[in-house]
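Action item from last week, closing it out:
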Amino acid sequence: MENVLRPVIVIGGAVLLTLAIGWATDRLLCKADERDNDSPLWGLLRRGRIPYQLVLCAALLRGSYDQAKVLEQHQVGIGRMLTLVLIGSAAWLVIRIAAAIVETTYSRYARAHRDAARVRRVRTQVELIMRVVSAIVIVVAVASMLLTFPAMRAAGASLLASAGIIAAIAGVAAQSTLSNMFAGLQIAFGDMVRIGDTVVVDGEWGTVEEITLTFLTVRTWDERRITMPVSYFTSKPFENWSRGTPQMTGTVFWHLDHSAPVEAMRERLRDILRESPAWDGRAYGLVVTDSTPNTIQVRALMTAKDADDIWTVRVTVREQMIDWLLNEHPYALPRVNTSQAVLPPQGLPSADSTRLDKDYDIPRTRRG
């Protein structure tokens, strides 16, 4: 009877104690979250319930398994498995706690500062720092797991002796990966590009959606995702429309007839911009920038507070100006000038008529 009750008491007690401590801790976090609504820390810490209970259960079972007197022939293997579970769940819990602290710090910073560019920069730095911390914790956890095996401890000296050669080989083999990782850190702390910035890369206009240590994702205006290595942004030029002040200047071009009423177009541009809520009122203008034998090139200039509004202003001005020209000044639109062909003298067929008669075997007739 004792052989049956002993493992049930030991294992069942460890599980029940784990559930009781986990439930009590969760209730304390809920009450703390209700008392302190301004801080999301307590709610974020509740995300670590599962790894927290795994740590408790693995630790209790690891410490009391010898008293269970069950599967004694596999005691070493079971003890090692519990140790691995304890290390892995502890690493998981550390990552969840670090993420909760970092996210809380960022939330407080975002509420305290109104500068959107600075908030985006801090968000980029926080996410990359969190990825670095997670990578370090995972590497340490895996190394600790491997060191629980005696064979790995015995091979430690030889591994350390050959560390220089391994590091050189790994550096050559992972040169591009390491360069991307350093480029990611450079982007995070060099304030080159941030999450939420509007950029133009390889002719594609979009918003930076995600930045990791190795790649960067740009969401284009048509909802496509362009994934690029972060080393691209440290080695090649690109446009960052959110860098510095978000205010922008846009242009619209038309090709019109020489008789186009330029002065009336200036007045119409002013009226269109005054009716457009996206125009920030800083500046506008309309000039003739080029001319050809058939047309003139007219450029309209306008300003807006950011990239989204400048796009709205440009399409509005282009559409309404063309509609106004069609209704009020249709003669100003481009035209193709034509004239009647000059006939050759009587009795002398033209070269074109001769060629056509020859190609299509059409009998020629004299005109006149």
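Closing note: Residues 75-112 form the longest helix (38 residues).
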